[in-house]
Amino acid sequence: MAGIYFHIPFCKQACHYCDFHFSTSLKYRDEMIDAMQRELNLRKAYLGNEPVETIYFGGGTPSLLAPDEIRRLLGTVTDLFPVSSGAEITLEANPDDLHAGFIAGLRDTPVNRLSVGIQSFFEEDLRWMNRAHGAADAETAIKRLQDAGFDNITADLIYGYPLLTNEKWQRNVAKMLAFNVPHISAYSMTVEPQTALAALIRKGKQRPMDEQQSAVQFEYLMDALDQAGYIQYEISNFAREGRYARHNSNYWRGVSYLGVGPSAHSFDGGTRQWNVSNNVKYLRALQDNKLPGEREFLTSRDRLNEYIMTSLRTVWGLDLRIVETEFGRERRLVLAAALQAFLQSGDILVREEVATLTRSGKLLADHIASELFFTD
Asked: Is 156 in a helix, a strand, or coil?
């Protein structure tokens, strides 16, 4: 199985915390769709005729596309790749784009899963983030989708920023649970270097993020969603039984995927490729039928470290038997020895050769992974 990812590089405005590639100008929108179709043609052999089981529109803001543009891109995919009949097809959407006309148009596309960027139900928080939508949109977007017959919905929340008191966070979580969506993603606010938020902190106009606040709110989230019957199948992702995001799960499991569009990444098991993060350069290259990106060959150490990092974040855990099969017995023994410190601290649990993070370990996931990485 394999996946295809479309990076739609357009947004209405720049969220203060976002460092993904996008443009607030829609000047090259038509040309971008044509270029993506051309890229799909140039890379039709990339997945080696593996069945495509997931297609994901990310960005950027994919809901800025018209339904007929989404259909065009999906039509090119089905013309060039063997797409499974039950493929998961996800579209990320901002709440302000989910008006009745757009939702009706989506019903006439193959899109069968929506990822809605709620982030917060509080107006002042959305303004602080510089989100394009307001609290009223956040309150109504999911209900509109559900009323239109979309039931495969995931929604995002953000925690761990100065405006978000614990009481407000609890109200955000409660409101999300009231919608009874099958999947919820929640992310701690991070400060990326080249963002407006980072600049405001450097200038002293904004307080830095508080790690203790983030930890308290993350622990509340885990408790509340567990009590509501959600499974934390990845550090930031919670779902009802059997409603895991198939596309993202494949990333964490090392499945091959083709990334299309400016800044999109691709992975075929042995190499990683990425397109140029510049709309004009991307368009010019495709006009000349050239692929606008770079490629790196992953060493055995690279692949092992990626497996450590991604597997530990999931409910499936880090399987030492897989490490031995894929990377050799010596590395399995070294890794098993390195795990002992975290077993003693109570941050990792090992059962039947599979290491998983405990509750305390989930608060230290990135640190633990980095301590287990191989350097030679």
From this structure: strand
How far apart are alpha carbons 86 and 372 in whole angstroms? 37
Contact between 322 and 328 under an 8 Å Cβ cutoff? The reply is: no
217 vs 222: CA distance, rounded Å:
9
Residue type, 34: D
DSSP H or E segment with residue 271: strand 271-275
pLDDT digits (tens, 9 = 90+) for 154-193: 999 999 999 999 999 999 999 999 999 999 999 999 999 9
Residue whose pair of structure tokens reads 């992310």 in the numeric block: 187
DSSP 8-state symbol, 259: E
Greatest CA span in the chain, whole angstroms? 59
Decide: 62 and 28 in contact? Cβ < 8 Å.
Answer: no
> Averaged over 196-216, what is the pLDDT?
96
Give the DSSP letter of residue 94: -
Please check the confidence at residue 27 and state whether its pLDDT lies above 90. Answer: no
Here the tokens at position 304 are: 């092992």
Q: Which pLDDT band, with edges at 50, 70 and 90, does 11 fall under?
A: very high
- Can you give the pLDDT at residue 376? 85
Mode of pairing for the β-strands spanning 318-319 and 293-297 = unpaired
Residues 6+ apart with CB under 8 A from 348: 339, 342, 355, 356, 357, 358, 361, 368
Half-sphere exposure of 107 (CA within 13 A, CB side): 15
* pTM of the entire predicted model: 0.96
Question: Which residue shows structure tokens 């797409």?
Answer: 83
User: What Cα–Cα distance (Å) separates residue 299 from each residue in 50, 306, 331?
Assistant: 23, 11, 14
The answer on pLDDT for 251 being more than 90 is yes
